[in-house]
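Cross-posted from the bioinformatics board.
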Amino acid sequence: MRLPASLIFGVILSVFFVLVALVSFVWTPHDVAALNISAKMQAPNATYWLGTDHFGRDTLSMLMVGARTSIAVAIVAVGIGILVGVPLGLIAAANRGSLIDEIIMRGNDLVFAFPSLVIAILITAVFGPSAVNAILAIGIFNIPVFARVTRGGALSLWTLDYILAARVAGKGRLRISAEHILPNILNLLIVQGTIQFSLGILAEAALSYIGLGAQPPTPSWGRMLSEAQTMIYTAPRLALWPGLAIVAMVLGLNLMGDGLRDLTDPRLRRGRA
Amino acid sequence: MIHVENLSLSISDMSILRDVSFAIAPGKVTALVGESGSGKSMTAFTVMGLQPRAAQVTGRVMLGDENLLEADEKRLNRIRGNRIGMIFQEPMTALNPVKTIGDQVAETLLIHGKASRAEAHRIAAEKLTRVGLPPERFPLSRFPHELSGGQRQRVAIAMAFALSPELLIADEPTTALDVTTQAQILDLLNELVDESGMSLLLITHDLAVVAGMADQVAVMKEGEIVEADATEQLFRRMNHPYTQRLFAATSHQPDRSPLPADEVILDLDAVVREYPGAKRGLFGRSEPFRAVNEVSFKLHAGESLGLVGESGCGKSTLTRAILGLDPVQGGTITAFGQRVGPDFPNALRSGIQVVFQDPYASFNPRWRVERLVAEPFHLMPNPPADRRDRVARVLHDVGLGPEAMDRYIHEFSGGQRQRIAIARALITRPDLIVLDEAVSALDVSIRAQILDLIARLQAEHKLAYIFISHDLSVVRAVTDRVMVMKAGEIVEAGDTQTVFDAPQHPYTRQLIAATPRIPEDWQEANHA
């Protein structure tokens, strides 16, 4: 079977960033926390491949560790959204029109009604800025997204004959949700998951950019951007590198999500074979 | 007036149509008959110049002295809707849901610049009146969702007919409709042909519809016309073996011998099933809708009971109640001596299984056949250890090999899927199988095979069937007793032969009269 080029490209980009993040645990070209004022504001050269910032920190090393921060925040935030949101959506769909459905979906509306970034700012402002609080804030806003996608996908499946057949086979609503509904909406969830993952990376960058995400000295792409802002005319490359990293990572995830959706559908699989 | 000459069509080396030739005379009805995949719809689309882009076409489609295959898109757009109109099978999706019916009919006129806006609406009202939707009762401002399926099909006809085309192509125009509606739509098409002198190309799988409508018939099989003649001659002679097979399958009677019926396995007493009314305001609700109204009947072991009615009459709702999927609001359902309800024991529940209509929606696409067929084992307290053998055995029962077990459902055709659905229903060795329109979506030859299978399994396994269908001829062929349902009530019940030969209730008579049939003497001539 031939894989589409866009999927391969997306996987390569995403895997590349994950590898970079993993490598950063054991090796970075320079120590990210070490300030070396004598080597500040260097252009890319043999020692500092992507140059240094105004404290003399190595940009490449900071990008590598920053990838780690972004990915960790996004994974946990999407994980919270899936682990809470998907079961809620399945329960709501299985009990369509009941009180439980109403409570779950109106609760969703409540969370949706608040602008997510504003609440994230509120949470971090109340509990103190830290990566953990940023994760929680982004995660909570992933819950209604997944609950809604899950419920929508599940509702259309509940009307199909094979669900009726499963009920005739004596299976309960929860069991049907797990055995029949969930596998058939996985492709929806994968696509939504990658979108939320890239949104999570963007949200983490935004929170860090305004100083409410990962705290110094932990490097983060968002904070690299905000620190580079004041020097945008003297050293635009300082803003360019983290900006490019964010774009490339988000692009890679989206391409991968699209490709995976096609692959996980057996009907589409046959169509291409 | 339209001559199709040696039309061949292939898509990436796969030959779809081969040397199709026929002529459509003005004011006549020409029918293309065939099973799914025979190329009849592709022929119609090619006549309209709507064939897939990748298709390679040779031959000629002559409209007057113009070869439509050589016309460019701009020229074709002037012909489509103007000189050739078309209506489709599915009235639910053939109209744009966000435009009023008046606008949709007027649109045809406006596109072709044949009328001003006001004029177009006047003509639209005229045409809608002609198809039986007078503006006094059906204002032009109605939206499609406010109309029934038959009424929507009338709007589609008005659209196709708006510019009085020379040729109207009707692709399975009544397949999605109830029999009484079908009869009305066919009458309407007949009248329009007679009045306006246009020609009608009728595409259908239903030989009985053809017998009542067409002047000329062409039988298609695998992209070729195997036989073509004037309708009566074709039915009387049936030169080609395929025509004979198709005909035999249409009126197929499976061999079955009624089993002695004594023990009552299912007993319905004054069953009522209501749906809550639509929400009104914050807490109010309108009157509940009674889908099943005090239905009572008994079913004996090994018996075949037919349930006939048009869409919306409550037959599927009744099925769901019998299967214990929905609660009832009145009366009792007793199966195997126990009342059906939430605490109906699973062990008894395994005695009632079901086969649904749509072979494409009946299976989880992500499971392999073995798991699909074995699903009802869930009802048994101890799933059998020889699960794979049991699955292989029921697959063998329905005529499939054991290698089917490890394949996914999309690898099977519609007929094979319906066999697998029957295998799934058989796996728990039930006493009763509910067949909910189980053969309605199948081609006639496949339908004949499945009916034979159903009859054979009944004899082998002493099965009782509830056979639900809108197709009276099928019910007549396979049931001992029949019930006619209308608006939630059983209006007539009795021996199948008696009910069909001497219907008592006016509604039953209406249903039987509306069912298209091939004239008796045409058939006799054939058998002689």
